[in-house]
Write a structure and sequence with these properties.
- The protein has helices at 4-18, 40-45, 127-130, 136-140, 143-150, 157-161, 172-181, 195-214, 275-280, and strands at 23-28, 50-56, 59-64, 68-73, 78-83, 92-98, 103-108, 114-119, 251-255, 258-262.
- β3 and β4 form a beta hairpin.
- It has nine helices and ten strands.
- It has two domains: 4-130, Alpha-Beta Barrel (N-terminal domain of MutM-like DNA repair proteins), CATH 3.20.190.10; 136-280, Helicase, Ruva Protein, domain 3 (Orthogonal Bundle), CATH 1.10.8.50.
- The protein binds a DNA duplex (14 and 14 nucleotides) through residues 1-3, 6, 33, 36, 58, 73-78, 91, 109-114, 128, 154-155, 159, 164, 171-173, 225, 256-259.
Length: 289
DNA sequence: ACCGCTGTTCTCCG
DNA sequence: TCGGAGAACAGCGG
């Protein structure tokens, strides 16, 4: 379930697995779409110790001591797994063989993921990476940063949050979760947000990312994707079940081709002017964006 | 058995 | 230039 938190988890896992080890060989699954834009000669030449891994949004930039590296994207079903020598991994598309014989697999059932090996100095300049917007974790998010990132957007709020060139890292799940936490309807316009709502949105984004990172297990993937695990989310995937806060049934609808989940009561389409807010702001003046 | 759904990004239209 | 639709792929549940 690769959105920002899952990719960050992958980054940390890879750092740990490569630590103190040498990459001695790589293997590419012949014909795999994973390498559709990749110079396989460079991929096969990856070697040495891990210099470091950066993450921007959902992209990983991995560099090795022989001055080569790769840009990785997990797509919808990509994940890195470390396995013992000789162990079979279904849907393994790329393999990184370590000097102790252990193998790091890039497993990707649906082949939406990609690996693009390039000279290390070119990693940041790859078009896909260069276009990315602000990263809520790495760059730090503030009201000013978020407003700037979203400024000029005519998209509905959730769609704008998923625009990787504005904010990099939120996908369908965490965009919906952030909006629920901020009590904002997914179809609100960017321009309609009041200052308190901007603040709530920043906090909502940070909270949903922090939550996802927090529940990660010590295994090889984040705990909540384990089979049989109960849905840990507030609204995502919970259509027809009671809102965890108010018991109203969670609803879903299609927005820009994706299913959006929200609570009609906690996230009213019209801006709420509730008692608390009125008390704090007796002169109920309208905010304009 | 078939249909529709699924976390992503990209390309092609109007 | 922008937004939406469809494609790329494989599996799963109803």
């Amino acid at each position: 379930m690769p959105e920002l938190p899952e990719v960050e988890f992958a980054r940390r896992s890879l750092e740990r697995w490569f630590e103190g080890r040498q990459l001695v060989r790589t293997e590419a699954e012949p014909g795999a779409r994973t390498f559709r834009d990749c110079d396989l000669g460079i991929f096969k030449a990856l070697k040495g110790s891990l210099v470091g891994i950066d993450r921007k949004g959902k992209y990983l930039m991995v560099r090795f001591s022989n001055k080569l590296g790769f840009v990785g994207h997990l797509g919808m079903t990509g994940k890195f797994l470390k396995r013992a020598p000789g162990e079979e991994v279904k849907w393994s598309r790329a393999r990184f063989v370590l000097d102790d014989g252990e193998v790091i697999h890039f497993q990707d059932m649906r082949l939406f993921g990609r690996i693009d090996a390039v000279p290390a100095v070119e990693l940041e300049g790859r078009p896909a990476v260069a276009k990315l917007g602000v990263d809520p974790l790495g760059d730090g998010l503030s009201v000013e940063r978020l407003q700037e990132a979203l400024s000029g957007s005519n998209q509905e709020l959730k769609v704008a949050l998923m625009d990787q060139e504005r904010i990099a890292g939120l996908g369908n799940i965490h965009a919906a979760e952030a909006l629920f936490r901020a009590k904002l309807h997914p179809e609100r316009s960017v321009a309609s947000l009041s200052p308190p709502e901007w603040k709530a949105l920043v906090k909502g984004i940070q909270a949903t990312i922090a939550f996802a990172l927090d529940v990660e297990g010590d295994g090889e993937e984040i705990a909540y994707v384990e089979e049989g695990a109960p849905n840990p989310f507030l609204v995502y995937g919970r259509a027809g079940t009671p809102c965890r806060k108010c018991k109203t049934l969670v609803k879903s609808f299609t927005q820009a081709g994706r299913t959006t989940h929200f609570c009609p009561t906690c996230q009213p389409k019209q801006r709420r002017v509730d008692g608390d807010q009125m008390r704090k702001r007796p002169r109920a003046r309208r905010y304009r964006g």
